[in-house]
Write a structure and sequence with these properties.
Blueprint (H helix, E strand, L loop, with lengths): L1 H6 L3 H23 L1 H13 L4 H33 L4 H26 L4 H6 L13 H8 L4 H28 L12 H21 L1
Helix pairs in contact: 2-7, 2-8, 2-9, 3-4, 3-8, 4-7, 4-8, 5-7, 5-9
Amino acid sequence: MCHSFYNNWDFPTVSLFLVLISTAILVALFHMIAPDHWVPLLIISKTRNYTWKSKYATAAILGLGHSGSSVLVAVLVLFVGVVVLKSSVHFLTEISILLMFIIAVYFIISGLREANESNDELMSRSALAVSAFPDLAFLPIFIASSSLGGTDTAYITTIFIAVTTLTLIGVVWLTTNIPGTDRLKNMPGRYTDYLIGLILVVTGIVIYLGI
């Protein structure tokens, strides 16, 4: 079954799929590790005396909201590109590479700006709803995956949603149950911004060299 599945793809297609799904996993993982995505939930669950079921259910909802809104934004942008602007798939792939570099610069600049703020200041500007805001880093991944077809795009999207949601739940569980892990809240969020920026740059270069 696995052999026949891969026989339906040529090598460049398999390579692009693996690159994009790996990027989606890393972006989802590092983005949700950032303290501003889970510290507000811990604070609110403590002050409002959430039960463990309520806390993890809220984490799941926020994870699904974050990944779902990210996918929705990506779908809307792809719709505009294909239906409204009538762009070809190859052109969209080139656009996705450009977006990877642009969004990578955005994350790096965002990280540099946060370097001048303390974690307390960053947390004071965070709210529970921030965790559900869309992740722009998924946008170029989704657009690039459109050249692979609907099935592969669905695989990549599903993995992104699953990793995002499970990572948020996992971090909340870890910092609640394992002594000392709550120190992760002191990790500067800019580090994850830098990592995501680097991941997008590397992915953009790899895709550019492969097309």
